[in-house]
Amino acid sequence: MSSSPAGHVARSTDRPNSETGSRTPLRTFLTAADGISIDSVYEPGGVVYDASAPSAGHPAFVMAHGFTGDVDRPQVRRVAAALARHGAVVTFSFRGHGRSGGHSTVGDREVLDLAAAVEWARSLGHARVATVGFSMGGSVVLRHAALHPGTVDAVVSVSAPARWYYRGTPPMRRVHWLITRPEGRLVGRYGFRTRIHGRDWDPVPLSPVEAVPRIAPTPLLIVHGDRDGYFPLDHPRTLAEAAAGHAELWVEPGMGHAEHAADDGLLARIGDWAVVRGG
Description:
The chain is of the alpha/beta class and 279 residues long. Helices cover 33% and strands 16% of the residues. It starts with 16 loop residues before the first helix and ends with a helix.
């Protein structure tokens, strides 16, 4: 289940807002490079569009959710609403999640899903695109920036692991049961609307900590809570060290894990950072 180049992605059949002059959100299925359909939503954000001079100067955020999330989850919609105060927002369901096709590969081929969403944001006229990922999505934005250099203008990774196969906390041992055991995958399918691939990675994909040194010169922000119950603080610190001074590290006092724990104040700071650092 190794990653391959982004290749072809399908365009939305809807006309972009910059062509219609409308600020109505769009929803469509994109097609990732390996043919998987990806349920995707575009929200124009807080700027009124001029059809004669559309969105080139208006940034777009592409949000990558965590494992068992999807585009309709309340926590995803809350993050999207917060980021929409700073620009347009593309949200999508990773493969195997929600209404998207395929099966989750837990961070491997999900890079192709993100690549399709980024290309969609570009096709809608946005010259500046930042990716913002949470937990599994945080690992995907790191890997995407490394494997597809120059395709985004800023990267924000929140609550991401530094390395694969981590089982050092009770929540991560439960996640591994969900992924690796047949009965766990049944719980994932019927309890969390997440269809999980039943085969091991072969080859093992580039890990987040291996990806980070390849991201420069794209601006990189690593965010982690000091009360994260899934990944302790050695994970963000290892990622920051791998960046060799290129990344900013924010350790958030009292914050737990991923979208659920990211409050509106933090999301506002992330939005401000991405707009400034993304040019």
